[in-house]
Amino acid sequence: MTQLITTPNIPDADGFYAELIALHDGLTDDESAALNARLILLLCNHIGDRAVLAQAMAQAIAAHTNRDQK
Amino acid sequence: MLQDRYSLAFTLYPYQRSADQDSAAPVHHPVVIMGGGPIGIATALDLGLQGIPVVVLDDHEGAGVGSRAICFSKRTLEIAHRYGFSEPLLDKGVVWNLGKVFHRDSKVYEFNLLPESGHRFPAFINMQQPYFEKYQVDRVRQAQAEGAPIDLRGKNRVQSVEVHDDHVDLTIETPEGPYQISTDWLIGCDGASSPLRKMLNLDFEGRVFQDSFLIADIKMEAEFPTERWFWFEPSFKNSGASALLHKQPDGVWRIDFQIGWNVDRQEELKEENVRRRLKAMLGDKIDFELVWTSIYTFQCRRMKSFRHGRVLFAGDSAHQVSPFGARGANSGLQDVDNLGWKLGMVVRGTAPDRLLDSYNEERVFAADENILNSTRSTDFITPKSKLSHLFRNAVLDLAANHSFARQMVNSGRLSAPCTYDGLSLNSPDKLPDAPARTRPGATCPDAPVGDGYLLDHLGGGFTLLALGTEIPESVTIDGIGLTCLSLPTDADQSLAARYLGAAPSAVYLIRPDQHVAARWPTFDETEITAALRKACAKGN
Question: What is the ipTM score, two decimals?
Fold first, then answer.
């Protein structure tokens, strides 16, 4: 089974992060949320592998649970 | 009138009447530096140690109070070593390599700035800026005694300048009245609010960040280790939206609190209010004494050009960044490192005037890199929108368990020297099998050599470094003598690892500021001649 990559995998991570944030410049909160949804769907389709997607969803919700316990 | 704008930590260059004040006609000098802070004094040292007469004008008489720039980088220490004042810096400074990042109460990230051995200097030392300035001037005094033509003039305020094609006229105010001098070259090292920049009506554009930070230097007996600790949204909520803790010499700790944009400065700086924030962070049990407090806001901006004919700008007068990343004073020292040898050659007539355009080219490139890094850190630390805040916290939440997110946590990308990739003094890389870190444009990484270190042998003039191949004992090109250095590669692994990699042999042409100009597998005088001319902005 393919494992979800959680080690650094994006070259120039700072540049990527800045680009991601800049994408939202000038959008309202609702527009930003919609943009994020579109982005997630595009990326999920690119990944394709349901097992990997399931792992990503599990990790994302786990970080939320951790946070509540802080 | 000469009113002091700040009080002094150290009186370093008290006013003394200069012979220039009694001269009937304005006295002419090759180089005049405006500003006797860390950048101005370093420029004076660089040029003075080359034997070039230099006058430094400052409207105060020494180093102002306040810790201000506290983090001095490895590259700064290497530059200071070349100027001969690294020893007191290391003796006094607090060495640190480890940084920790917290979100609320949990540690999310930890970094070691120098996981590599074989360097003379640590990644950073912390030290109050006045000490740095004092050790610099101590070195100037020693150099003067050895004959270096450096003239420091305290309480000399430049009132006006008149820039001509081939010289600059200056009118200077002193406690004993005004006088005039002229100079071939004027260097503006007069800080972020540069009076010189304003006199010449030059631009200084960029971004203002809408947040304020409260700095508190405190003395305390506490068990914090000698590390950089940064908190995002600390659980001690009553102190600020972020906090930074750093150790300095003399049992002093620097604490920065992010306190928001719309604050009443007077109110926030009241001792009881500063103490309230500190108590929220430290608890009631730790006793502390307030040493210095200040509130700062910041900008990321630079001048369009650092050269305006006969006038050059260096340090904060030319570029300003947010403090995250320690890219202010450290990048200013790198400006000096870059400018010193170029101006030296132009003054001596061994390189054309346009070599100074490469100062502008290279240091603008470096300033943009520093501004980019510092802007990104600032956007991460003080998110400018709800969405940006959301992503920032998502990164922090994921960082506890996932290393991919840790690399996105940005509490400051700490100052590293710029590599002048693709700029005009470099020759093409003829040794692609050798490590990228020593490609043309890069600063030479240090390595153990004999009883000392590689960088002890580099700098001041041009050097030809040979590894695993023969070079002549001396090479002179266009009247410029190159220092020829042939080193064994079997004595220390780090030298070979950093300069050879997969290449069996190498010849490096290294600039006076310890940057690589060119490299080849073997000695070829025609190639070296072309590369040296390129590095001196001669010919095409």
Answer: 0.92
